[in-house]
Amino acid sequence: MTADARIAAITERIVERSRPTREPYLDQVRRMAAAGPHRASLSCGNLAHGFAACPAGDKEALSDGHTPNIGIITAYNDMLSAHQPFETFPALIREAARAAGGTAQVAGGVPAMCDGVTQGQPGMELSLFSRDVIAMAAGIGLSHNMFDAAVYLGVCDKIVPGLAIAALTFGHIPAVFIPAGPMPSGLPNDEKARVRQLYAEGKVGRDALLEAESKSYHSPGTCTFYGTANSNQMLMEIMGLHMPGASFVNPNTPLRDALTKEATERALAITALGNAFTPAGEMIDERSIVNGVVGLHATGGSTNHTLHLVAMARAAGIQLTWQDISELSDVVPLLARVYPNGLADVNHFHAAGGLGYLIGQLLKKGLLHDDVRTVYGEGMANYASEAVLGPEGGVARTPAPDVSHDPKILATVDEPFQPTGGLKMLTGNLGKAVIKVSAVKSQHHVIEAPAKVFHDQAELQDAFKAGELDEDFVAVIRFQGPKANGMPELHKLTPVLGILQDRGHKIAMVTDGRMSGASGKVPAALHLTPEAVDGGPIARVREGDMVRVDAVNGSLEVLVETSAFMARIPEQADLSANHTGIGRELFASLRAVAGPADQGASVLY
Questions:
Q1: Beta bridge partners of 265
Q2: Are the C-beta atoms of 345 and 338 separated by less than 8 Å?
Q3: CB 314 within 8 A of CB 404
Q4: Helices and strands counted in the chain (H then E)
């Protein structure tokens, strides 16, 4: 099916813009694919080191150079609930590989930190940079050049984007992403949010808050709200890097294990040693990236992906911009209501029809490129399906339902929840920013109010506790960009700003930092660039300046006469306290070279 003409035009624009970088990238991918892994040409000493720990059968297979070998890159640790299930995956993958006539080795582990643990803490200032560290760590694992394909075990916020950057950097070999799945549903997300808000108001104590949080995050698996982690899973599936239907199957179930075995078998089948060679760098093209953006809009996904998708695309020589993302938002309808832009969690979303149903709806109107390559084969139509456990214990697939099992969670493409997607770009005399409006009520889409200026989120929280914020205002929180302090999420502000909005005040936020993938009902202009530490216009804003955040017309303005505003000397901030402790001193070089937010806030590109 041909894509919608508007989507086709945006895609073609990306293709043309990307030619100077995409063509050299593809040349390199093809040269490296032609050279193949060096396993067969390694010296005996090199090869002996490479398989010294393997059992005899694997050593024999690796010696001949003709048996496909999978490199496993794992983000396993048992502190992240989403990643704890990966502990058993390497053994399962090795067993499945041997049964299919191949071998598999853990090529390397990558760091994986939990934003849920570090929110509001010093460690959050390492979070965004961990994405690029993960990409580099995966590169070290794969640098042994003994692998015909790679499988990537990761779920959460920065881990999957980092792994995707690595997979595209090693784009000459196939890449299959294997998820672990969401934890079963716990305390409803709206009830969790209610208790958080009560705690912020001082109406319940820490015991009540901890009890609510523990009932929400209660077992192995991904957190069940639709934040960055679950947006990652959607992206990997709609971009064709997962097996169809793999994203939202719970951990430690027979179907989850069957999908992992199937992914292993498929990774072996698409190496250069077979007849279906699918190198990741050629498979993921401009159409795949556009499909990812379409999925983000259709599901109301995480604002963090305005950073991550740009960085991932650049790893494949593709030049995606915020303007592209914003224009696609004008075309793509919102089809899903999952918390924070609804009451359902991802388990409810999956039960209502999930990604198979959503992909089918988007294909019906030509809103996805169907003519793409995926790890499963040609075409996105394969992904308009539901994975179930077959009679022999393997994976079987049935067509996705034509009708939503719950219209409050999944709408039809003909009658969407709203006609446009959830993310927009804002531009104006404050620079460029992004805003997520899928969870923001229409009466809050335009906010004009005096600025209250803060240099960190603790200052705002202190002002709230002191009763200084019971009025209309735009919270301007600056010196939160990648060069300033690593661009931490400011999720701790969500309950406070929500309380003030509920009291009837006009509230918005403008920041050169990030919010959470779960940012919700308060309009927030995020990722503002240029950032304050680079002398961006946000550093010229003064207390009481009128600021207008307009998500309808896509504008972000400080309402100060231009010459007077530009004559102001940009404010400075003492950031020394943000540069030491909890490992932050190790990241000084990354802060120094970090790129702007609209280019992915990357230290790599």
A1: none
A2: yes
A3: no
A4: 22, 16
Collapse the DSSP code of 100 into the 3-class scheme (helix H, G, I; strand E, B; otherwise coil) and give the result.
coil
Q: How many CB atoms lie within 10 A of CB 79?
A: 10
Specify the fold of 423-599: Glucose Oxidase; domain 1 (3.50.30)
| pLDDT of the residue at 2 | 66
> Which residues, in sequence order, are bridge partners of residue 426?
433
Q: 135 and 595 in contact (C-beta within 8 Å)?
A: no
In tens, the pLDDT along 255-267 reads 999 999 999 999 9
Is 54 annotated to bind a ligand? Reply is no
Straight-line distance from the first to the last Cα atom of the chain, in angstroms, rounded to the nearest whole number:
34
* R_g of the chain, CA atoms, integer Å: 24
| Residue 108, number of CB atoms within 10 A of its CB | 19
**How many C-beta atoms lie closer than 10 Å to residue 231's C-beta?**
27
| CA 530 – CA 9 distance, rounded (Å) | 29
User: Of 74, 84, 92, nearest to 153 (Cα)?
Assistant: 74
Spatial distance between the Cα atoms of 352 and 590, rounded to a whole number of angstroms: 43
Stretches where the chain sits below pLDDT 50 are none
What are the C-alpha distances in Å from 304 to residues 22, 83, 127, 143, 292?
24, 20, 12, 29, 13
Q: What is the pLDDT of residue 567?
A: 96
Q: What is the pLDDT of residue 295?
A: 97
Give Cα separations from 407 to 24, 152, 349, 412, 416 (angstroms). 46, 34, 10, 8, 10
223 is in an annotated binding site: yes
d(CA 108, CA 36): 20
**Among 175, 170, 109, 111, residue whose Cα is nearest residue 143:** 170
- Do β-strands 473-477 and 446-454 pair in parallel, antiparallel, or remain unpaired? parallel
- Pairwise CA distance, residues 207 & 282, whole Å: 52
Q: Where in the chain is the domain with CATH 3.50.30.80?
A: 423-599
CB count in 10 Å sphere of residue 33: 16
**Residue 84 · residue 78 · CB < 8 Å:** yes
Residues 6+ apart with CB under 8 A from 467: none
Q: How many whole angstroms separate alpha carbon 174 and alpha carbon 414?
A: 36
pLDDT at 195: 86
pLDDT at 518: 58
CA distance 305 to 420: 17
SS3 267: helix
DSSP codes of every residue in 274-340? SS----HHHHS-HHHHHHHHHHHHHHT--TTHHHHHHHHHHHTT----HHHHHHHHHHSPB-B-BTT
- How far from 153 is each of 137, 233, 374, CA to CA, in Å? 13, 11, 18
Decide the pairing of beta strands 431-436 and 524-529: antiparallel
| Count of residues making up the chain | 605
397 vs 381: CA distance, rounded Å: 12
Return the DSSP state at 182: B
pLDDT tens-digit map of 409-468: 999 999 999 999 878 999 999 999 999 888 889 999 999 999 999 999 999 999 999 999
**Do 264 and 151 form a contact (C-beta atoms < 8 A)?**
yes
563, containing H or E segment: helix 562-567
CA dihedral of residues 245, 249, 251, 257 (deg, nearest 10): -40
Phi, psi of 542 (to 5 degrees): -120, 155
Q: How far apart are CA 224 and CA 504, in angstroms?
A: 30
